[in-house]
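Posting this for the archive.
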Amino acid sequence: MAQTGTGSDSTRGSSAWKVTPFDYQQQAKPQYRNGFSLKSVYVTVRDGTRLAVDFYLPIDLPSETRLPSIVLFTPYYRRCKLKQGSEIDPNPLYGYAPDFFVPYGYAVVIVDVRGTGASFGARRGFRSPLERMDFYDIADWITKQTWSDGKIGSTGLSYVGAAADFLATTGHPAVKAIIPTYAVWDTYTDMFYPGGLMCRTVPQGYTHLAEALDSDDRATVASYPYYSDPAFEGPAPVGADLDNTLLRAAIAEHSANFDMVEFVNQRPCRDSGSIGDLSMTCEAISPSSYVTEQRHQVATYAISGWRDGYGYSDAAIRRFLSLKNTKNRLLLGPWDHGANINASPASCGSVPQFEKHMEYLRFFDANLKGKAGGYDEEDAIHYFTMIAEKWQSSKSWPVPGTSSSELFFGSKGALSGVPTAAGGSRYYKVDFGCETGTDTRYERIGSQAVDEYYVSWNGRDDRMLVYTSSPAVADVEITGHPEAVVWLSTTASDGAIFVYLEDVEPSGKRHYITEGVLRFLHRKVSESPDHDRTIGPYRTYRHQDITPVVPNSEMELRVGLLPTSWLLKAGHRIRLAIAGADSRHFSRVPVGETPILTVHSYVDKPSRIILPLVNPPAKVFD
């Protein structure tokens, strides 16, 4: 089993690492201490579109020295133009990259993807195959520069992290290592349609920001925290464009960009395409669809947090399981989307203390410069257990020592270790007013700031159907993917089930642990493909696998919950809360009627929650 350490999300003093990021901070020595130079140019890609590119080099770089490069592809401005006389950082999102990596001997390249910033062209969708090949052309341009040593790495958060993944899929031989952080692996399930049900937070939140950025609507852009400084004056022009003529021409071309709400609405299944372009499916815009032998050769560090959007933590795990390379690494912290907040209830609202950039440097040094950085001596996986507040490590996932513990639904709302002999059913009229608040995992991916996560959770299950265990007789660690198996019938011909796993204190206070969602029409389970290795039930979400619902007929629903690592303390209870809606974050199904759900639990059809417990004691619950 994993080694353990103590403390907050900082790794200082943790024995889970052979070399912690903090240790590496003490060892690594900046080679260039006099700052960096910035140049910006247009690079023309294969279809003639000109992309705006910034590149940063050490000021004191000897003319004969060649550097590895770290490239970032962004739709959120590679850099902002500043009001004359302003001295703030013109790069509110990516300024860390040159500030941090250039002194350690890297060239940093930041690119406005087509249809954004100062780049020309238009976006055909939320990423596209055409954009993906732009990345190959930029990599080719980098390798031809006099300062390039021919090795390229890439990183980034969210869209930019997935762009790093797409760069790795192009097969360009210079791409050696990437760090996709807080990023999708499969766009359909991880972002647009978790469990086959549309997450409204994504299109609604993204549309307003993207349209404002792409059209240079500064008043709207300024309403978002990262761009709120009054010194920002839209996207920065390329260096030679002194009168902004090219910038204005580029922005004019952005008016043809896709509309995110329409784009998502047109893709109710994974293989749904646009009305005008049937090939533009969620598979075409997912990194997982491009796994080839060449992709396996790129060292990949998948990073996420337990409160990261909907499926991003699961995406990081599936990325790690699907790619076969002994250099690959997986990191799962107590973080939200982008690690803005430590979201563990024991550290709720605190700023993460993890030395993330040093960990990135350690990985790039190992794979772009050949410096071991301690990787040869340590486990490939590091994960943080909430409530226990400690880092742990493992050679594989699921964690060695994990066993599945089943708690069965009782007719009176109990969870017990054996199915109820007499069986029973419970009825629940779907409450479409049921919602999970504004401090959830969904707000940050909708471009909304959250300071503390799930602090308003206590009492939300009062509007749900709940099942509660007896108190735990000993501390036990839940690490992995819980799964709910629910035998259910409905009075409607469609619907959805939301399943929430909770920790109930002896006082009765409830804490959110994790959740899962499933639309009934997508309940068919299939074998997961090699390019998307899944823990728990896998679904194709294709049109051909839609399974009609027969009203008032029992059906088995296997609901995979998002992965977690959580210490359940002795005296605390496990609770499962079931709802038919999350009105704040998801679309409503069915429409025009309010169904009644009947949850069944019999010996031959046992509804239950399956918990992944790590080295559990002989007895967990009475």
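DSSP finds twelve helices and 25 strands in the chain. The first helix runs from residue 21 to 27.
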